[in-house]
Amino acid sequence: MKHASKGECMRNGDSFEIIIIGCGIAGASLAYFLTERGAGDVLILEREEQPGYHSTGRSAARLVTLDPVPSMFQLLLASASFLREPPAGFSDSPLLEQPGNFIMFQGPMWDMIKELAPFYEQSGVAIELLSPSQAVNRIPVVSPEHMDGAVFLPNDGHIDVHGLLWSYLRHARQKGADLRCGVEVQEIRVERGQCCGVTTNAGEFRARKVVNAAGAWAGVIGKLAGAANIEFTPKRRTIITFDAPADLDVKGWPHIANYSHRLFFGPESGGLLASPMDEDPTEPCDARPDDLVVAQTIERIEKLVPRLLPRSLKRKWAGLRTYSPDLDLVVGEDPLVRGFYWIAGHGGSGIETSPAVGQFAADLIMEGSTDRIDASVFAPGRFVNR
Ligand SMILES: Cc1cc2nc3c(=O)[nH]c(=O)nc-3n(C[C@H](O)[C@H](O)[C@H](O)COP(=O)(O)OP(=O)(O)OC[C@H]3O[C@@H](n4cnc5c(N)ncnc54)[C@H](O)[C@@H]3O)c2cc1C
Fold first, then answer.
1. Taking the domain 2-57+162-231+325-383, which CATH number applies?
2. Membrane-spanning regions, if any (predicted)?
3. Which residues of the chain does CATH 3.30.9.10 include?
């Protein structure tokens, strides 16, 4: 943190109402909802040369409307409505393809899903419970021995992340938001407990509201501000892509996962993608795939869906899913530094929940409260002992 001496913050740099640090999906959706609410004077600062370079550009792009945590489930439901039916003129093409999600479970996980299924149904989620033989009839490459049952979620599917990110940004910019890439925030200026701007490699920018949307670097940015000390854990996740067997038409397949045996796979650009659902903790970084994890993925395909065993790989990549200590989102004003806001800890759901999270975060920043959800469960103050 850089403590400004009296008046210093008011002298240097261009002035904005709100500065957002980071242009992944969190920063972009927030900019959209802030400008929708009339905050035209928004500056988004992104260290990389393009938005979405880190986690946002590396996701599996799924909407899965299942979550046993009520607060997250509520955000998923609200976001699903936006993704299925965005506001008129929001995007040029549909944001969601709906081939569905097909998820296999074994043991206690299956018992839990069976118990929760009526609740999901009552909440409006279309959900089919399938026995192992019904599941194999639906997806013949899977084997009944690796599951006690499966669910099919016909209204879920694949999000056009690029379309979503750039639609948020296009509308925000049309309403006056300014996006600057290649600009790294290096200091947060705080004057008598109140945020007053940032220092970057491109100079100083003044604002009394600064938002930390820095993804895996959220903890680093929090420390720069002298804000609540929240230990985020970025966890690496790996994806490989490869050709489908020539005699299988996989194009219309749903996304398929076995949560108990930890593998997901599904159609991707005419072929297939797969992930071992790895979660190795790491420092914030430009994540790269680990050869051992790639080998593990192939072994798991061989065991669970041998028909799909890749002969060679087309691409492989890794990205970070970043979690707070209690695994829940961190959204709202910092308890120690006035005007410093968090929108962080999106874990593995940042794309699919971005409409609802961006919207209630904008309420908190503009109004100090929201009536859309109980935002107290996400408040950064929960990590501070008073
Ligand atoms: C393999 C994988 C699969 C996933 N699958 C899904 C899925 O199916 N569905 C789903 O909803 N989610 C999924 N996720 C999770 C999702 O991608 C993330 O939750 C989401 O992208 C987080 O967005 P973000 O904006 O917080 O972070 P990011 O996209 O990482 O953006 C943060 C930005 O902050 C910038 N930044 C950091 N420090 C500074 C600084 N000092 N100055 C300026 N800029 C800075 C970074 O450069 C970065 O661009 C997946 C993630 C991975 C890795």
1. 3.50.50.60
2. 16-34
3. 98-157+233-323
User: Which residue among 1, 54, 166, 233 has the greatest number of ligand 1 atoms within 8 angstroms of its CB, and so is best to mutate?
Assistant: 54
Say whether pTM exceeds 0.90. Answer: yes
Residues forming beta bridges with residue 236, ordered by sequence position: 280, 320
DSSP symbol at 214: -
Domain with CATH 3.50.50.60 in the chain: 2-57+162-231+325-383
User: Candidates 3.10.20.740, 1.20.1250.20, 3.30.9.10, 3.40.50.720; correct CATH number of 98-157+233-323?
Assistant: 3.30.9.10
- DSSP β-bridge partners for residue 101: 153, 255
Give tens-digit pLDDT for 350-379: 999 999 999 999 999 999 999 999 999 999
Taking the CB of residue 369, how many other CB atoms lie within 10 A of it? 10
Q: Which atom of ligand 1 is nearest to the CA of 349?
A: 11
178: left (phi over 0), alpha (psi -120 to 50) or beta: beta
Q: Give the containing element (helix H, strand E) for 83.
A: helix 70-84
